[in-house]
Records
---
Amino acid sequence: MADKRMMVQIQNLEKYFGEDKDRVHVLKGVSLEIPEGSLYTFLGPSGCGKTTTLRCVAGLERPDGGRISIDGRTVYSAGERIYVPTNKRPIGMVFQSYAIWPHMTVFENVAYPLTIQRRPKEEIKRRVGEVLRIVGLQGLEDRPAPKLSGGQQQRVAFARALVNEPKVMLLDEPLSNLDAKLREQMRFEIKALQRRVNITTIYVTHDQGEALAISDQIAVMHAGKLIEVGTPHQLYSKPKRKFTATFLGLTNLIEGKVIELGGDSQPGRLETNKGILSFVPTTKLEKNQTAVISVRPEHIEVHKTKPQNSENVVEGTVKDAVFMGDAYHCHIAVGEDLIRVHTHPFLTMNPGEKVYLRLDPQSCNGLPAEDIEGMDESMMGT
Amino acid sequence: MKKYFTVQSVILVACSLFVVYLAGIPLVMLLYGSFRSAPIGEPGAAFTIQNYIKAYFDREFYLLFLNSLYFALGCCILTFSIGTYLAWVSERTNTPLKKLFVVMALIPFIIPGILSTISWILLLSPKIGLINIALKGLLGLEQSPFNIYSMWGMIWAESIHDYPLVFLLMSAAFRNMDTSLEEAALSAGSSTWTTFRRVTLPLMRPAMFSVMLIVFVRAIESFEVPALVGVPAKISVFTTKIFLAIHQFPSDFGLAGAYAVTLLVISTAGVLIYGRITRREERYATVTGKGYRPRVIDLGPWKYVTCASAFLIFFLAVILPVFVLLWSSFIPYYGIPSKELFDKLTLANYRYVLNYPLALTAFKNSFYLSVGSATLVMLLTSVIAWITVKSKLPGRALLDNMTFIPIAMPGIVLGVSLIWVYLTLPIPIYGTIWVLLLAYMTKFMPYGIRAASASMVQINKELEEASLASGGTWLQTFRKVLLPLLMPGFVAGWIYISIIALRELSTSILLYSYDSTVLSIMAFDLWEGGQYTYVCALGVLMVLILITMAYVARKLGARIGIAE
């Protein structure tokens, strides 16, 4: 990654909404860099500031502080008093509602960025034809926009965003208006399209599954702050922050006090109300600090008899087990707490049964137990 | 370097300043004028409170005030009863043919107030009224049973023309009411009557009160009926008093100003209270939402009675006046339909009207003013609606209020204001058609902004942003994306304004001159000259023009607008 050129750079972005006493601080010093040619996702719950950041890059919102540059050119700088309006930025954008103009045909919609520049007719025709072929809409040029299906409207929106060969394509929750099946299919299409055109793309979503499936890199955001950046694999299996662990996929959190830091190949140890558990230190912790172990349901083995010579084993009772086809999703009561476990469908689980859980030490991530404002229990792996 | 003079900022600033000019200046000048002894430049021009003293210490003032109040209250009660009854019948009962009521209720809108007033004089005048003559003959009466030249006559003539507004507003109120609230009361064990009294009525009360208020304000501003019926009957109200103050010789502009300010205060109070109530009502509406299927009451055999009564109202409001206009336009002298007159049917009235020396000027002026003011107002208000709805520019709320000011200005008051504006400002358009154009634009701006904002609100912000993100400038975005999407609202507003512009009388009558005569003034002059049959011929032509305009505009709009 280090040798890659950065296409979009954002430094200390600040943004407030509203006036005077109703002022809300929506972006609190967001800084990030987006490498050329990558598909970069802003992920977070609603209200985290991901869409606002995207709209600041587009120039549709005017930030209150910081700096944004696209392709080496500063498009916003609070210090230098620079603000390049949206229509002068090298961007293409796909909106949540697609924003297909209902009074125009497919061709007119897609050709719009070129016609307003008064390009020659021949060139417009050729380039619209090309881009419609890329999105798979050739032959629909003369169709009025209101007569398109949801999926087709979205392709038109992509074609319109791409036709002027922008430096950056901005996608604002482009799949949220489609039904579940089409959404799944379009994920792969967007990814394939982005690879083919090799265009730097910023993708905003609140859907963690979508983000994992599609992204080269994900920036997890919460309450106006950037929490963590990484590849989908890094963020899922080795998160550095408690919020990342809970927001991406399901996880179990077990709180305790750090009694051994660990390091290199040495595991750390945490004293919890379920005994002493070992963990992999993914981030810097202090001795005697309160910390949590995050372990995902699929990394917990269920044994009906107590496994011998093994660490990280806790005893519990099956509370309930729901058959999901490819697995049983179980709640195991351990002391006061419930632990979620996904087990093989052949292993039948009966409520009330006594079981032993082995939390794979390699998959137990030790994370600081810091509380992030506004994070509520509903996000904690329920 | 930052550019301050972009196309966008020039357009936005120009339009905003123009609104301030149209709405703000007349108001200021009216107040100024009411405190002047004479217009600037005339001998003895100075500041004075003499106008107000003269207005308020006149014994007639209190009679005037009472007359205006009686008239407005009477109209308020009568229009409200008719309109609400029809709305209830068509929204909440199983009366047959109720779909037809809506169409029937809209027809009186197309008949100009001056024509409707004239037709009722022709029907109810004690000497020549057709109904009076017919009843005297049928019942062998000595005296005419009806006299239009009375307070009751005035109230009737005004109400039968104004009730459609109440019908439309109350229909909407009935439709928007969440009937599950009523059903909840019924299921809690209360009787139909108790439910009506304890639930329906309190829920409808804000709507009812606001509708009454708007009818009251309209009646107090009304000019046609007071001028044509009230003046001969010696029943003076504010609007006619102002008119007479200017039309006497020499004109007393200062006195007219003092009366106009008084009238303005009354109507502004009404409009402000109306705004308060409806804003609260809208808050209710967002809670209760829309799309309820109103509970329809089964009237049993009574449904034929309600149906017949609705048709009777339609007969009185539309068929009779239109018939009397049509009939009178084809006869050589005014009289009751008879075999004798039937044989004398003639087109002479139409020939006379079309060959009237001023006819061509009046037709042309009316046409230009109607098309011109509708187009300019809609373009102006589309830009203003963008500022008030879409932008976050400072002062947009103020601009929105500014655009609405003229709604509180009675036509005759606007006329007085503009006289003061162009007698004072060094802009040499007094007495030309341009002063009428500006007057019409001021007067119809509130209707334009209402239509434009309603459409603007419905346009998803992203449609506009997509154009910006495609590299479009603000002007390109406005022309190529916003205006076409606004088209349905634009056309609706355009039709409405062009229609009411064509029949405008109360402002024009203070501002016209020989060269800037319009159709409604011509009708007024012919009527004053006692040429009844000619007026009717002119009236029929006006109605035909209005129908054609509405039809063409709607066709055109359907082609430009979005086909769904």
---
Amino acid sequence: MDFYLTALLQGLCFSGIALGIYISMKIFNIPDITTDGSYTLGGVVTAIFLTHHQPGYIVLPAVIISGAIAGALTGIIHTKLKINALLAGILVMTALYSVNLSFMGRSNLPLINTTSIFTLLHLVNDPNQNTFWILLVFVVIVTLIIGYLLKTDFGIAMRATGNSESMIRALGVNTDRMKIIGLAIANALTATSGYLITQFQGFADISMGIGIVIVGLGSVIIAEAFINWFRITSIWISLILVLAGAVIFQFVLALTLSIGVDANLLKLVTAVFVLLIVSLPRLSFKKSL
Amino acid sequence: MIDIKQVYKTFNKGKPNQVDAVNGIDLHIGSGEFVVIVGSNGSGKTTLLNLVAGSVIPTTGTVSIDGNDVTELADYRRSQWIARVFQNPLSGTASDLSILDNFRLAAIRTKPKGLSIGVNDHFKKEVKEKIATLGMGLEKKIEQPMGTLSGGQRQALTLLMSIMDSCQVLLLDEPTAALDPRSADVVMKTADKLIKDFKLTAILITHNLKDAYNYGTRIIQMGEGVILKDIDTAKKTSLKQNDLFDWFG
């Protein structure tokens, strides 16, 4: 049971990445893989601030700002220097590896004798359940903010930018600026996942972000499958499905481990799983034609 | 309203594939004029329209709108005067967004897109009333994604969207090229009505010589990046439809 509770908790921790990828990939139609770097950056900033005993109300804003800067850099490289978004993301991600390493001064930074967001409040006695409630509140707040944002006039303009660039420019929106802001928001969200995971596992590690973008992609693709099946147009339901996607993704991984698959093969299983979700609807769709 | 002075536009300058799209155009379009531009492919019609819209910046020369020099102004900043309808219905509307959201963006074309929710019951009612004037029954579908509509419906809605916010110049780049004859007719009639009702200054590019004959107060023929013929209202009324066909003979 604990095994699945951990999966649920991890899924909630990864909801930031899932929402971030949802914004960059689904809303802006930009394949952004700055994610690997900005996630680690979020974790690294968290670990440094916490080990220096900075108060919690400074840590989270610092994490959000650092993630936003990373995303904005990718956005600027992509829009102003007209470099392919994928390459722009790879460049920033690669550069962030060194940045993260020099910030930490070593490859691993454990959180010893520090107060984390999960030990700050004691809502219930069981530590795992306590973590669950804190995570749930955190995720609900983040989702409400993003959902509201997407409903505003600014949010509609954001959604239109990835949809019909010629139209939104004709309607008076600077699409370059919009993309930079969008990637900043996406990577700020990703960084909050690094923030949560670092406190959840009790350390930041330079390699924690390697391949993490697949977690976000997988979550969004699971959500997309449901969105397409049920023809969902509501923003709120879409966001909830993205969160559900993040949790389902972790459950599948937990399930694979529990049936005795070698942990070394986990990334392979992840890749195959994502491939399956992407391809299954298309395979069955073709037959029905 | 629109002043184009000694405008030249060369693409890929100095390369083997250099194109002199516009070769020295002087054009004054007065307020309330409805100019129809005809010309064969590659005559520079679309480049001229893009020069007005700001999607293309001239190599030399100046463009001004309503007395303001806009030569270097980006397209998204010219939206304070200009609304556009594109050849491709997909370009003028956002497929994944609902009709309502598309109209919301159009309603704030000249204003900043802020962090408040603008789609409320009052706005919905306003959009429904506007769409009902088209007589297509689309007012019941405002929550549907734009992508579920046909090309003709989308072009008609794009036209309507242009007058959701204050609009002085309407640019129509072959708005009916992708449509069947009946939809094309509806779109052209809607455009004509809006231009008259809202006293818009309009530029229409078309390959349909019948439309060129039936609509507009002035007709311009372009070729090789220059203006070949410029027929004003007085002469246009005495023009015969066959004369137009002869231009391309």
